[in-house]
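Structure ticket #2291
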Amino acid sequence: MKLDLHYVEELPHPLPRVWAALTTPEGLRAWLMESDFEPRVGRAFTFRCPPGPGIRGYVECKLLELEPMRRIVWSWLSTDIGEPTTVTIELEAMGVGTRITLWHRGVTAPDVGQRTATGWTG
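Resolution: structure written out below.
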């Protein structure tokens, strides 16, 4: 069974700051994990974290879409998920803040879905 995880959050940060958190290695490290991300469509990159039981310590990704200040899409493959999934993040300015909408589509196991959900919301 495949799960689609969906989150909507309003952040008290301006859109350019949120965009930088999603499109720079420094921003992604602070928000998610260490990476070698570059904002070039088609480029493969890797997120790295400490390995653990059932977690190999890295996630293989590829940047699929990039609409500056609006949308970013990347593939996501980790051994605990098992097959490629897709992460889509859309941004919308909301006054002085930003609404972030995130979908992680194609997660195949409920326990992995729970762990992934905890990571995205953290």
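Closing remark: The CA atoms of residues 56 and 79 lie 7 Å apart.
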